[in-house]
Design goal:
By secondary structure, the chain is α+β, with helices and mostly antiparallel strands. It folds into two domains: 11-231, PmbA/TldD superfamily (PmbA/TldD fold, 2-Layer Sandwich), CATH 3.30.2290.10; 242-453, no CATH class. It is built from nine helices and 19 strands. The chain has helices at residues 11-31, 87-103, 135-150, 219-231, 250-263, 266-270, 331-337, 365-372, 420-425, and strands at residues 36-52, 55-73, 76-82, 155-174, 179-185, 187-195, 202-210, 242-248, 291-293, 316-320, 323-324, 351-353, 356-357, 375-382, 392-403, 406-419, 427-430, 440-441, 445-453. Strands 1, 2, 3, 4, 5, 6 and 7 form a seven-stranded antiparallel beta sheet that branches. It is globular. The two termini are 48 Å apart. Residues 1-6 have low confidence and may be disordered.
């Protein structure tokens, strides 16, 4: 997919500018009396095109700037931010942060991450792949994707195709002398379609998200996938209330793992608002199951050499042999808990759920359907029915009823319910059908039993 560049690659010049600005502001903060200071600065460039029924709906070019400063006067903290990088705005932001810090209460957990934990190695992670596409070519690509989907018999309407290009450069610096520079690209294609008429309409979609445009699935294939998913929902029915095994499709399985991450993250733990409080070192999943964080994956969706506080990232088990190996902590939450940062300020970096099952290899999606046997294949969830304190899980859902390892018919207007603690312990298999579009890399996940309520 070649085209004229949207703009020249100025990433290194922008990084130089942001680095110089950050270091200068930190010096000025120290001169103003701050004992510690940290700066995050970024520039984001993007193009987004929406096409519907072959016509252009929206074209948006963006160039956003961000500058955030935190100062510490002892253990009193003040933060301020601006989207304007001109000197007057930066000075006003510094003045405001200092004023806030002078009037806040002391917090024993406040302060920069430990200086000894700062990253010192910065290997190339292959995250920078500018996409040379102009508006006309982005429109044409959106039209090709939508046209491929609308060509399928039974597709009656479209919610449109979207083409997105994004580039981001950022700098994090602090008064330990640390200056970390990052640049990355993220590009996306998507299509949403409608099949049927009136009360019998169904809607579904597909998308792709990549660091490098060369890694996109073919436009025809994306349109076909969106159409096939939409048409497969025709004739959906409800189910009578029952208990049955549930197979989470890969794109939903990562959400299930996301609930685990939320429950073992520092903020929930020090507030004592997690159903996995005090579970480090305890079995929470089957003994064959392993989950590993790998921050240095090439082209990874959340790869990075340091976290949001400059702490060096490293490969580390989250769940090992079914046992919760650690929590997910930045320096503040770690101090609140009397622990050490795990290099996760700002979030998790590429979580890998290893495929497997109690009897060895789980296999691909077809093999996972065979393992499910008779039960529910889950492809959509709705609502916010997850209680992080109790672990209670109840969501509106849609998917397919499976009999003897074969998809029998689509289902909708159902609710699935269980407790996350039981769901994690009841995982029977994790497939090899990994969805690569997220920083949580997992195949489909088979849970042995949930309540399904419908008619």
């Amino acid at each position: 997919m070649s085209a004229t560049a949207l703009s020249a690659d100025r990433s290194q010049q922008d990084l130089d500018r942001l680095s110089g600005l950050a270091e200068d502001v930190i010096r000025r903060a120290r001169a103003a009396g701050a004992s510690q200071a940290e700066v995050s600065a970024s520039i984001d460039i993007g193009l987004s095109v929406n096409v519907r029924l072959g016509e252009v709906e929206t074209v948006e070019h963006t160039r956003d700037r961000g500058f955030g400063l935190t100062v510490y006067f002892g253990q009193r903290k003040g933060s301020a931010s601006t989207a304007d990088l001109n000197p007057d705005s930066i000075q006003a932001t510094l003045d405001q942060a200092c004023a806030i810090a002078r009037f806040t209460e002391e917090d024993p957990a406040a302060g920069l991450a430990d200086a000894a934990r700062m990253a010192t190695a910065f290997p190339e992670l292959d995250l920078w792949h500018p996409w040379a596409i102009d508006t006309a070519d982005a429109i044409a690509l959106g039209q090709r994707i939508e046209g491929a989907g609308r060509a399928h018999a039974g597709i009656t309407n479209s919610d449109g195709a979207n083409v997105q290009m994004g580039e981001s450069v950022s700098v994090y610096a602090n008064s330990h002398g640390f200056v970390g520079r990052e640049r990355g690209t993220r590009h996306g294609l998507s299509l949403s379609l409608i099949a049927g008429e009136g009360e019998h309409m169904q809607r579904d979609y597909w998308y792709d998200s990549v660091r490098a445009a060369d890694d996109f699935m073919d436009a025809q294939a994306l349109g076909d996938k969106a159409a096939e998913r939409t048409l497969s929902r025709m004739g959906a029915r409800s189910l009578s209330t029952r208990e049955c095994p549930v197979l989470f499709a890969p794109e939903l399985a990562r959400g299930l793992i996301g609930h685990l991450v939320g429950a073992v993250s520092g903020g929930a733990l020090y507030r004592r608002a997690s159903f996995l409080l005090d579970h480090a070192g305890k079995a929470i999943m089957p003994g064959w199951l392993n989950i590993v964080e790998q921050p240095h994956l090439l082209r990874g969706k959340a790869s990075g050499n340091f976290d949001a506080e400059g702490v060096a990232t490293r490969d580390s088990a989250l769940v090992e042999g079914g046992v919760l190996a650690r929590y997910v902590l930045g320096s503040y939450s770690a101090r609140k808990l009397g622990l050490s940062s795990t290099g996760n300020a700002g979030g998790i970096h590429n979580l890998i759920v290893k495929p497997g099952a109690s009897d060895g290899e789980a296999g691909d999606f077809g093999a996972m359907l065979q393992r499910l046997g008779t039960g529910l294949l889950l492809t959509e969830v709705m609502g916010q029915g997850v209680n992080g304190i109790t672990g209670d899980y109840s969501r509106g859902a849609a998917g397919f009823w499976v009999e003897n390892g074969q998809i029998a018919y689509p289902v909708e207007e159902i609710t699935i319910a269980a407790n996350l603690r039981d769901m994690f312990a009841g995982i029977r298999a994790v497939g090899t059908d990994v969805d690569p579009r997220s920083h949580i890399l997992t195949g489909s996940i088979l849970v042995d039993r949930m309540t399904v309520a419908g008619e």
